[in-house]
Every structure is written in C-alpha cells, then in structure tokens.
Write a sequence for this structure.
C-alpha cells in the first residue's frame, strides 16, 4: 500500500498527537479500587509434605513443591491422536517398576508396555441428524493448566518428579481403542437390569478399573481393584450393587469373581467402550480436574491450591495406603489419566454391551473406523 505525502503527514501528526495524549500517569488508590480484571496467565506456588503411595515402591515422606501455570481460556476442540501413550517402560504386573539391573523374566506377565495406551484417541465428535446434516460436538475445555512437581531434598537439592496437563472443567466425547489404562476412572452405573431375563430391577453401583477374568499373575483377585495397566472395568469384588436403591436402602448384590448371584457379569473389557461422554453424570455436563500426568513416584496432585493442603491417608479399594483427602488425587509412578468422580455414567446394559465409537472426523471413510 502507498500513502501520498500529504496523507502521510496527516497520519504522522495523528500518531504524535495520540502519543502526547496517551502519556502514562499514576492512578490514585481510590481510582485503582474501581478497576477489576483477571490476568490471562497466573501462577500458583505451594508446598505439601506427603507420603508417597504404596504401589510402586515403599512409602517415604517427601517435601513436594508445585508450580502451576493457569491459562484463563475457554476452548472447544476436535482433537485426534493416532496413538496416545504415557509411561512406556518395563514394570511388573503389581505396579512395581523393574530394577536398574533388569527385569526378572518369571515376573514379566504384562501384556502392554505402556501405562496408558489408547489407539485412535480423539476428543470431540460429529453427529448425523435425521435430515442428513452433520452437527459438530466439540470437546469443551475450560482454564487449561500446566503443572510441575518438585521434590525438595534435605541436602538442598531439588528434582522434577512430575508434570501434568489438565483443565479446571471439561466435558464432551472421548473416543479411542483402549489397550491399557492407568489412572482414576470412576463410573456410575445406574439404570434397569433385567434379572433372570425378564424381571426389571433398578440398579445403582460404582465401577472402577480392575483385573480382567485372568486375575493377577498368580491367578488371584479376579475382579479385584487394579489401577495400573488395567484392561477391564466394572464393579469390583465385594463392592455394593444396590438393587432397588430407593427402597429402604436397597438389596445388595455383591459380586464375586466377576459375577453376581443372579449371573450378571461385572467385568467388562475397556476395549469395548469406544466413545465415552465425559461429564454426562454432572448437572452442567462438565467435570473438574480432568488431567494427564507423568510422575517418577507415587504422588498426589492437589485439586485446589487455595483449599486444604494437609493430606489425610487411608486405604483405597485395593487395600493400599494412599492419600484419600478430597483435595488430592493420588497418582502412581508412570503415566496417569484422571477422569474424576461423576465424570462418566452408564446403564447396566451399556456396561454389559459396550459403547460404539461415534464419528470423530467430518470425513472418516478412509480411516476404516466406522
């Protein structure tokens, strides 16, 4: 673009006059009190003394310090990853990593070499309407954050022991072919189950990651809690399945060896759940603190840096000593995915039959996924 000399002079004069009028001046306290706003990027820094969990190594007390970089933004996305992998290293089936000297072949029974392995991973979906039009259903992400965990050692040194990418709130369709999963996937089972094939019974229960029908390496704990490289999900052995939950507290149908007394199978492979609606169980369709993380020790991440930072301890569903405080999320050495409580809900039929994959690309015929 060319500017004529006369026009150029007027243009420069306007800039000079603007600069003269825009001189910086200090504001008095009274004027500042009338100004409100929020930074686009904020940083939280806090420390927590905690005992590491009891899955990957003997528990030890460490001084953890966290730096959390918050980004104030609302995002909508359609994201596809051919193969999402976190925590790719050799470890024994009980969660213990192989020693530096190498793995004992007699204990190496794991089927997958990654803590989180999801092929054809996708966030967001497309839905075809009856009139032939296609509606975009993006995955919604609110206030993303990146956080680093440090261990402050008594000798004055420090080491990065964890990093996580998360979101204050999120909701939408998560799809993928799940091989193995390490993390916290808390599913609410609620709906009507046909008992003996013809009696409709209202059911309510909680499903967690678990051992599959083969159990642990020794053939035990079939249907037991297994948060590390799990291949199945369901109501773990000994937990409550409440039939008629609104009628005098209901009737308990506690499963044993992946089955109830009525013959209902309570262990289902993760691979059959190809699209999950994150946030479906909550009123606003979103969950808090959805994240992916990687850590070199069993540590707990804080949900709210402004909340209670004093951890409390107890046993999880597998009998391990972990942090159970509501403001902490226990994680394990390696990769971890967290879909918080209330994030997923399935009917008993959906839990038994699985969920098909929703279209995750506008044009997907070439992928052979559908």
């Amino acid at each position: 673009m060319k500017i004529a000399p006369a026009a150029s002079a007027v243009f420069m004069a306007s800039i000079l006059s603007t600069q003269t009028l825009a001189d910086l001046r200090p504001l008095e306290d009274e004027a500042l009190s009338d100004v409100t706003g929020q930074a686009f990027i904020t940083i939280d820094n806090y420390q927590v003394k905690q005992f590491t969990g009891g899955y990957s190594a003997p528990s030890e007390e460490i001084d953890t310090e966290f730096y959390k970089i918050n980004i104030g933004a609302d995002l909508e996305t359609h994201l596809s990853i051919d193969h999402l992998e976190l925590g790719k290293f050799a470890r024994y089936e009980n969660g213990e990593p192989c020693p530096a000297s190498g793995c004992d072949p007699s204990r190496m029974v794991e089927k997958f070499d990654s803590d989180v392995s999801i092929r054809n991973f996708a966030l967001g979906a497309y839905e075809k309407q009856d009139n032939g039009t296609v509606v975009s259903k993006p995955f919604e992400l609110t206030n993303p954050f990146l956080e680093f965990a440090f261990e402050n050692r008594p000798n004055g040194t420090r080491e990065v022991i964890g990093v996580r990418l998360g979101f204050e709130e999120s909701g939408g369709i998560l799809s993928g072919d799940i091989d193995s999963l390490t993390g916290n996937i808390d599913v609410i089972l609620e709906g009507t189950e046909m008992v003996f094939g013809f009696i409709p019974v209202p059911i309510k229960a909680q499903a967690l990651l678990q051992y599959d029908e083969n159990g642990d390496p020794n053939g035990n704990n079939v249907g037991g809690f297994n948060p590390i490289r799990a291949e199945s999900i369901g109501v773990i052995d000994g937990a409550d399945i409440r039939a008629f939950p609104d009628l005098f507290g209901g009737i308990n149908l506690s499963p044993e060896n992946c089955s109830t007394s009525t013959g209902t199978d309570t262990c289902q492979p993760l691979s059959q759940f190809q699209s999950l609606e994150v946030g479906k169980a909550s009123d606003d369709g979103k969950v808090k603190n959805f994240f992916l993380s990687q850590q070199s020790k069993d540590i707990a991440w804080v949900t709210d840096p402004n909340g209670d930072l004093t951890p409390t301890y107890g046993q999880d569903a597998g009998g391990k000593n972990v942090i159970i405080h509501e403001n902490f999320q226990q994680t394990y050495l390696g990769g971890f995915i967290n879909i918080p409580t209330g994030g997923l809900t399935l009917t008993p039929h959906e839990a038994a039959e699985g969920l098909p994959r929703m279209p995750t690309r506008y044009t997907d015929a070439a992928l052979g996924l559908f």
In short: The two ends are 51 Å apart (CA to CA). The longest strand covers residues 158-180. DSSP finds three helices and 22 strands in the chain. Residues 162 and 306 are 20 Å apart (CA to CA).
